[in-house]
Amino acid sequence: MHRRFVVPSALAASVLLAIPASAAGYGPGAPGIGDPYYPASGNGGYDVSHYDLRLKYQPATDLLEGTATIVATATQNLSRFNLDLGLRASEVRVNGRKAAFTASGDHELEVSPTSPLAKNAPVTVVVRYAGKPSELKIGGWTAWHRTPDGGVAAQEPDSAVWWFPSNDHPRDKATFDISVSVPDGTQAISNGVLLSQSSRLGWTRYNWRSNKPQATYLATLAVGKFDITTDKTAGGLPVLNAYSKDLGDNAGAARASIERTTEVAEWLEEVFGPYPFNALGGYVPNVTSGYALETQTRPFYSPRQFANGANVSVVVHELAHQWYGDSVSVDGWKDIWVNEGFARYSQWLWSEKEGEGTAQELADYAYGARAADDPFWTVKPGDPGPDNQFHGAVYDRGALALQALRNEIGDEDFFAILKGWPTERAYGNAKVGDFVAYAERVSGRPLAELFDTWLYQPVKPAAGTGGIGATQPQARTAGAQEGSSKPAQPKSWKKIAATDGVHDHGRDHGH
Questions:
Q1: In the chain, at which end, N or C, are there fewer CB atoms within 10 A of the end residue's CB?
Q2: What angle, rounded to 10 degrees, do the helices at 312-320 and 261-272 form?
Q3: CA dihedral 117, 122, 128, 130 (to 10 degrees)
Q4: Distance, CA of 179 to CA of 197 (rounded, Å)
Q5: 252: Cβ–Cβ under 8 A, 6 or more apart, which residues?
Q6: Exposure on the CB side of residue 113, measured as CA atoms within 13 A
Q7: pTM (whole model) above 0.90
Q8: What beta strand segments (E) does 285-334 contain?
Q9: pLDDT tens-digit profile of 363-414?
């Protein structure tokens, strides 16, 4: 479902090549950042602080032309470093001087500056490049949606290589300025605040700014014909939502859902603390996929998310990620529970707020709906493996772990943790173990065994563990049959289950 980049043997071998005597003491940066799930994702040797992307896109031909300026700092003495880019580069400059470069593997751009780069030195890299993103396939897989009126970049765990050069891993976050020129009558949607737009000679340029650290996969670009709504929250935060003009029968339900973004975000602030970014919104392009994605400040929603009517639950899920996933990002992709378990639990809390089933009732039902021999229980949310990174167990069993925590420590400490964690870790990265340690510190209780049971053991926990799945009558949802240990289905269950496609990213958009 999600491709796993493998470091090409030629690339790995190139690391061993001798370096010139003039660069003695300097060496190449690693061709991967060190994530065991995706060995070739990201790169070593430098840290990016800002991306400035100046793009021109022609919807009729899918031709994307770009100039990327990357502001970074060397983290070691570098003779060479890699960028992740799948399109063709035509020129690279490092600190103003032309640099040698070569493409290798599926998406590696090896850059050799004229002069080696000293550790802690500031580095500015300019890359000129072009290509048709829809023609780029990596292992038969694409992150680019070609649409009738343009194109969209939105995918997880990678999408940047289809449209800009980067250090493509969440561990290296940066701010973004994204300027996109498109034919008049076409819009370009991206992250953050729309600073300005101007037209000249048949082209309109849109200038977007995301001013807080952002993972590369959370950067998004959508070019097409959109209906756009704008507003401001009570606190003055700009809100911009965009809807493709040809959503068909899904158009009304999409608007009925996305236009509640401000309401949902204000409620989430009560749960998770102040909203962490400079803008708010969402967009629904005319793609054929079925998933949604927490692209920073402006989540991406496939039209199919609204095929059965309004779907506020998916808005809750993607906006919860703005705290859990976007502001506090994974340290490595095995830490995906820190994103998805909390986003799913936020849907349970919304259900509780709406009177459609408490989090406890949803937990009991989720537990009881799957037999002990269901393969669901063999997936470990705390380290699911790359093939199960977006398995339903990461979501539902991940949320069960949070309900067990809530039952163990009580609401006061539990909600203090939900609000304190994204504040303490704002704009950074974290491992599952970091959250466990934080929860222990706040609650003053040992919790390693609880989290081991729910996140790491490949078996169904015994009924009653963590206060979940108890068979006493009081543990059953109202309406359960007398004498039955299986709770009745909460009213919100089907609505929440309808959003399970949020983690089905992989096979339905290779067009």
A1: C
A2: 50
A3: 100
A4: 9
A5: none
A6: 26
A7: yes
A8: 292-293, 300-301, 329-330
A9: 999 999 999 999 999 999 999 999 999 999 999 999 999 999 999 999 999 9
